[in-house]
Amino acid sequence: LICRKNHDIEYLSTGGLILGSFPHARYENGKTILSQGDVLVLYTDGVTETTNNDENVFGFNRLEQAVRDCKDQDVDGIKAYLTDSLFQFTDSNNVRDDITVIITKCEQPFS
Q1: Mean pLDDT of successive 10-residue segments in the chain (111 residues)?
Q2: What is the pTM of this model?
Q3: pLDDT in the model for residue 26
């Protein structure tokens, strides 16, 4: 998921199976440009599939909104905000899957 400086959300369109589970898996190469202020969030399905006590999933819409809400913070602030959002949604009791998030923020343009 990429949250652009203007808060637009984009998803990477190439890839493959989950990393590390299949030794002979093949992946497509893709390319995108990150501009100053853009945030790239890579995450496992445990993030979007986490459920609350009513069995509602956190889902893509909540993830997108959470990233939009905190994208102007530094990477540590984004991590803290996403973690808090997930645990508030689940009440910290329904985490049944791994939750892995990698956050990259483009602080200055590449030349």
Answers
A1: 96 76 81 93 91 91 97 96 92 74 87 57
A2: 0.87
A3: 80
> Looking at residue 110, what is its pLDDT?
66
CB neighbours (10 Å) of residue 84? 12
- Return the amino acid letter for 104: T
Q: Using CA atoms, how far apart are residues 78 and 38, in angstroms rounded to an integer?
A: 12
- Label residue 96 exposed, middle or buried (CB < 10 Å: 0-12, 13-18, 19+): exposed
CA-closest candidate to residue 5, choices 29, 33, 43: 33
Residues 6+ apart with CB under 8 A from 57: 48, 49, 50, 51
Contact 36, 107 (CB under 8 A): yes
Are 71 and 85 in contact by the 8 Å Cβ rule? The answer is: no
